[in-house]
Design goal:
Spore Coat Polysaccharide Biosynthesis Protein SpsA, Chain A; alpha/beta; 8 helices; two-stranded antiparallel sheet
């Protein structure tokens, strides 16, 4: 499997880092956000969900609604820019400075090997304690979108404009209202809730070198990442 898209989530509050723009914090002189984007340089398209910055020209930028609405809302916003083409998306946090293209390749290969009725909807890395890292994984776009729809419907009921009369009056407005309703419903939803809608395959990282799943939530994490890559 080689064709894939990438959505990088960069809109967190970074409370444990004093509210700084955490994805812009450098590791060995490069913003963590840039290191993650470099690990998926062959993805088409690449989407960053979060504040704009000095980014490669091919990177699309959007924001979740409302800003700070959490990773599920950000996932919804990112997928909205993919269009109908990509079948697989790498969904990644922007604070993974040790992520590499070989690690992304291992995730893609594992998902590609899944087949049949019991095939997984996605594959994510697990850390050294066996905990899932859902924002370090790859997912089938249609099933991920369907899961987002189910979570939104469960949290809000029918989307605005879903009834036939509203749609008949102004289909475009009804569709926009439906998307806005879904986005609002997903604000504050957890990745655990979203993953509950999916069949997830877990992948333990056993290759040599720093762990690609390592995320930096604190300044000490940043220092540790830099020590790993000296």
């Amino acid at each position: 499997m080689t064709a894939y898209a990438a959505v990088v989530l960069a809109g967190g509050a970074a409370r444990r880092m004093g509210g700084r723009d955490k994805p812009a914090v450098p590791v060995h002189g490069r913003p963590m956000r840039d290191l993650v984007l470099a690990a998926v340089a062959d993805a088409v398209p690449r989407v960053l969900v979060g504040p704009d910055g000095a980014l490669p020209a091919d990177v699309l930028v959007t924001r979740e609604e409302p800003a700070g609405g959490g990773p599920v809302a950000a996932t919804y916003a990112g997928l909205a820019l993919l269009g109908p083409g990509p079948a697989v998306v790498a969904l990644l946090a922007a604070d993974l400075p040790l992520l590499t293209r070989p690690a992304v390749g291992a995730l893609l290969d594992t998902l590609a090997a899944e087949a049949g009725p019991a095939a997984a909807d996605g594959v994510c890395l697990v850390d050294d304690r066996g905990r899932r890292q859902p924002l370090c994984g790859v997912w089938r776009v249609p099933t991920l979108r369907a899961a987002l729809d189910r979570v939104a419907a469960r949290r809000s009921g029918p989307a605005p404009g879903a009834d036939g009369a509203a749609s008949a009056g102004n289909p475009a407005s009804a569709e926009d209202a439906g998307r806005a309703g879904q986005a609002a419903a997903l604000a504050g939803a957890s990745m655990r809730e979203l993953l509950g809608e999916l069949t997830v395959r877990e992948l333990a990282w056993s290759a040599a070198g720093p762990p690609p799943w390592f995320d930096c939530d604190t300044d000490s994490d940043v220092r540790r990442a830099e020590e790993w890559t000296r």
